[in-house]
User: Which sequence fits this backbone?
């Protein structure tokens, strides 16, 4: 017996059951060097008590005991303690007794009195066997555990793990396949992987998965799409996986290998792909309308230009800007505004052909690339089609909304040869279209280019104009028609541009509104006006009103009223004698806000007049809600008085209405005495115009006041 066996055998537990105390003791002594844990019992009852207390691997059992029949005890032990091996000792060496004992389950049989050698050998062998079995069991357990462990690793792997035989049939698949594709492993084992591959991917799959590869080329990462099991719910019918496949070979004596098949791991990367696709989409599209954005548009335009140049063809770029979008947004809210943009995008798309690109590049601005347009006439047709399509109202949120587009068109190569210039020129043409009565289109012309360079320069120069003191306030008298006395002055801003000379407000106020310079300019205007009003009061001249024009942006400013009042305070005057002029369209942008703000100003004694009356909405309903004092009839109506038809009707109508509402009426732009006579005849209160005086400097205005 090896020392190894001895040490392991020592861990075996032995119970000796023998009624002869001396025989029992000598047996114990004999076995002690070989079996370390030995317990003894003198009777069957003692033996059972020991067994109840602990487990024994071996029992050395004397068949003849005083308190029990050895055979019955043996049978009992085998039944109750099947894991304990019983070696029977008996003086009875008859064959049938031995056979009987073996039948009852004895492990071995020793004839009494035992030869010490034989006793030791029999017990040691039994102990060794116990030990071997025990080791075996442990090993099996370990194997079982490690098998379970590997199965667990493989099945809980998020990746699909598979093997293919040399014909490309699955021989193994882990359970991830059901999560990824919806098949159970047993559905696929024995079938070719090709069943999972969409037709258009087959070549790619065969090349990467079927090839018998060796050496460096044995593992590859390849992206493949796989079919989901029919009926597997949710989204796409395919899943994108990244597969890395390795050839499996059995080494051969000649150093080569026999191809057995492939082993592979497939990872589901659909979510990653989807996320990548979303990010890419978002980077190149406007999310509200789903249209391409400026970046994608620029890209496509670049390509189209390259192609057009190569084929010496033309193309058109259109810049589209929605008319009155801000009004819709302000009056109906952003949700309706968004709805309108979406509906607009939809309708515009309807006017286009395949290959055209429509992009949303800003709030209410769209761009259109028409690569298949070769003449001005073609472009005209499309623009007219768009304009016509917008004559029908949009239905949003149960409301009927009309919205037009102002369109500017630039053609490659005539109007520009690069993207930047084409877009700039289309933009410029669009502004031109806007100026000439909306929902219309204009082509770029080279004349416009000068106004463009003018526009950019204006913006730039305006930033310095305030600090350089280039603004000056002019004043134009308002004359009472009956008394011929000056009843007020309108403050009109002028800009002394170092190179361009005197610039009129219509040429820079709209730009100031767009680029945010209107706020500081307005503050300057108000401050100068207040100072002038105070100065005139101080001279002791007859009190007059001083009209100040307000821009829409200025009124929209949340602190507009506070700033206004502060400006009055800073200059030490009250609101009496200050008259603010606002246009109807300014009011309509935010009627409720405007009403509240104007009321607060009226409380300070400030008077309110509606400028350019008759050109805007001319809705009378708002007049009743507002603290209005004066209507200023737009000069276009006065101009039309010459042709004695529509103009006179309107002027007479406005005047009569104003009288009914107890409002003052001032006619603007009176240039002839004939006009003045007519105004006098219909009872108009006051007039303003070149007939009496052009707008003049503060000094000249003071002179006029003193003269009257
Ligand atoms: P508005 O308030 O309607 O001013 C009247 C405009 O008509 C002035 O033009 C004036 O010079 C012009 N005008 C006066 N009498 C006659 C006439 O007999 N015939 C003709 N053809 N025109 C006449 P202006 O000064 O060029 O101002 C244009 C507009 O710019 C103003 O229209 C006003 O809306 C705006 N504006 C002027 N000053 C300011 C300002 O300080 N702030 C703001 N926000 N806007 C201003
Ligand atoms: Mg005015
Ligand atoms: Mg006016």
Assistant:
């Amino acid at each position: 017996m090896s020392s190894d066996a001895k040490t392991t055998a020592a861990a075996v537990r032995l119970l000796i059951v023998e009624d002869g105390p001396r025989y029992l003791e000598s047996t114990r002594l004999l076995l002690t060097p070989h079996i370390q844990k030995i317990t003894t019992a003198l009777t069957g009852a003692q033996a059972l008590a020991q067994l109840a207390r602990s487990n024994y691997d071996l029992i050395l059992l004397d068949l003849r005991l005083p308190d029990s029949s050895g055979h019955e005890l043996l049978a009992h032990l085998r039944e109750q303690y099947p894991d304990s091996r019983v070696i029977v000792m008996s003086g009875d060496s008859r064959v049938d007794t031995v056979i009987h004992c073996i039948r009852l389950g004895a492990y071995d049989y020793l004839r009494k009195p035992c030869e010490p050698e034989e006793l030791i050998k029999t017990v040691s062998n039994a102990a060794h066997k116990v030990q071997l079995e025990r080791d075996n069991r442990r090993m099996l357990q370990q194997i079982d555990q490690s098998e379970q462990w590997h199965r667990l690793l493989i099945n809980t792997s998020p990746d699909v793990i598979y093997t293919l035989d040399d014909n490309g049939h699955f021989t193994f698949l882990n359970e991830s396949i059901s999560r990824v594709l919806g098949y159970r492993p047993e559905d696929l084992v024995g079938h070719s992987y090709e069943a999972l591959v969409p037709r258009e991917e087959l070549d790619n799959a065969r090349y990467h998965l079927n090839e018998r590869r060796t050496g460096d080329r044995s593992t590859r990462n390849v992206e493949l799409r796989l079919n989901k099991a029919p009926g597997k719910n949710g989204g796409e019918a395919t899943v994108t996986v990244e597969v890395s496949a390795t050839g499996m070979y059995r080494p051969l004596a000649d150093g080569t290998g026999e191809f057995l098949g492939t082993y592979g791991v497939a990872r589901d990367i659909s979510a990653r792909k989807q996320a990548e696709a979303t990010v890419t989409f978002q980077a190149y599209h406007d999310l509200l309308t789903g249209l391409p954005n400026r970046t994608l548009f620029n890209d496509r335009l670049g390509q189209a230009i390259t192609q057009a140049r190569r084929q010496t063809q033309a193309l058109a770029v259109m810049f589209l800007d929605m008319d009155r979008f801000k009004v819709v947004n302000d009056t109906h809210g952003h949700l309706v505004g968004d709805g309108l943009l979406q509906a607009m995008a939809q309708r515009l798309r309807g006017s286009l052909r395949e290959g055209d690109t429509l992009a949303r590049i800003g709030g209410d601005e769209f761009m259109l690339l028409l690569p298949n347009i070769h003449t001005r006439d073609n472009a005209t047709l499309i623009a007219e089609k768009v304009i016509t399509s917008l004559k029908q109202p949009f239905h949003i949120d149960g409301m009927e909304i009309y919205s037009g587009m102002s369109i500017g068109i630039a053609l490659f190569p005539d109007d520009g040869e690069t993207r930047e210039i084409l877009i700039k020129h289309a933009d410029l043409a669009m502004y031109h279209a806007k100026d000439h009565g909306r929902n219309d289109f204009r082509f770029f012309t080279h004349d416009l280019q000068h106004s463009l360079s003018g526009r950019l320069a204006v913006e730039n120069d305006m930033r310095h104009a305030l600090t350089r003191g280039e603004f000056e306030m002019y004043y134009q008298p308002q004359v009472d028609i009956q008394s011929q006395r000056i009843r007020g002055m309108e403050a009109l801003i002028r800009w002394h541009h170092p190179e361009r000379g005197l610039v009129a407000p219509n040429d820079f106020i709209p730009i100031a509104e767009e680029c945010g310079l209107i706020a500081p300019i307005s503050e300057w205007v108000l401050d100068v006006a207040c100072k002038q009003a105070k100065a005139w009061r101080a001279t002791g001249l007859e009190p007059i009103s001083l009209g100040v024009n307000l821009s829409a942006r200025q009124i929209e400013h949340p602190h507009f009223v506070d700033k206004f009042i502060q400006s009055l305070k800073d200059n030490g005057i009250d609101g009496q004698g200050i008259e603010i002029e606002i246009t109807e369209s300014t009011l309509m942008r935010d009627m409720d806000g405007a009403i509240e703000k104007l009321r607060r100003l009226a409380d300070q004694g400030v008077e309110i007049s509606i400028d350019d009356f008759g050109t805007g909405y001319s809705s009378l309903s708002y007049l009743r809600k507002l603290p209005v004092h004066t209507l200023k009839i737009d000069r276009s109506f006065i101009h039309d008085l010459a042709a004695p038809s529509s103009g006179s009707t309107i002027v007479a109508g406005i005047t009569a209405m104003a009288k009914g509402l107890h409002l003052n009426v001032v006619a603007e732009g009176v240039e002839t005495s004939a006009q003045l006579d007519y105004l006098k005849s219909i009872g108009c209160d006051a007039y303003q115009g070149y007939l009496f005086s052009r707008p003049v400097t503060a000094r000249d205005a003071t002179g006029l006041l003193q003269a009257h």
